[in-house]
Structure formats: C-alpha cells, structure tokens
From TrEMBL:
GO CC annotations on file: sulfurtransferase complex
Gene from which this protein is expressed: tusB
Protein's name in the database: Protein TusB
Similarity comment text for this entry: Belongs to the DsrH/TusB family.
Organism field: secondary endosymbiont of Ctenarytaina eucalypti
Biological processes, Gene Ontology terms: tRNA wobble position uridine thiolation
Superkingdom as given in the UniProt entry: Bacteria
Compartmental location: Cytoplasm
Length: 97
C-alpha cells in the first residue's frame, strides 16, 4: 500500500534523508509550508528528492508566498489545493514529516 508523505518543515530543520530511506515507488511526497524550501533548484535537498522513488509535488501557494517561484525545481510538480485533495484520495495512508 502506498503512502502520501507531507513535508511541512525546512529540510534544514528535519531529517529528510530518513524520510527518503523509507519511501517506495508509488509513494507521493507533497512539499508544503516551509517544506517547499526542499524544492529549491540546485540545492542538496532537491538532488536527494530527485534521486528518490517518490512522485514529487509542491503547493503553489506556499512557493509563491515565500517568493521561490523563480528558484523552484522544474523536476517537482506544482499543484493547487484541489490537487492536494486528489492526492489524499489517491493515497489511503498518510504520514506528516
């Protein structure tokens, strides 16, 4: 059974690598709140995320609110709140990180 992980903390304030070690193909990761910092283009966190088996998503409103639009990775899908709801329907198990 696959999982939706939500990362709401900066990758510099949590153990992102632990999350990535437990991820499996078919799992989704949503970056929200300060978690969108992990999606900065060229950052070590972005490199780790791209190398993971996760499908990667980030909330557009949180990217815009932090002024990161021009610096955000093109390898991470930018989604709306409606898309977030769809992810929660797709993945019956969820884990906040």
């Amino acid at each position: 059974m696959s999982v939706l992980y939500t990362l709401s903390h900066s990758p510099y304030a949590c153990d992102l690598l632990s999350l990535l070690r437990i991820a499996w193909p078919g799992d989704d990761l949503l970056l929200l709140s300060d978690g969108v910092i992990a999606g900065l283009r060229g950052s070590p966190a972005e490199g780790a995320l791209i190398s993971s088996p996760l499908a990667l998503h980030a909330l557009e409103n949180d990217i815009v609110a932090r002024g990161l639009t021009m610096h955000f990775s093109p390898n991470i899908g930018i989604i709306s709140y409606n898309d977030f709801v769809s992810l929660t329907e797709k993945q019956s198990q969820q884990m906040a990180w």
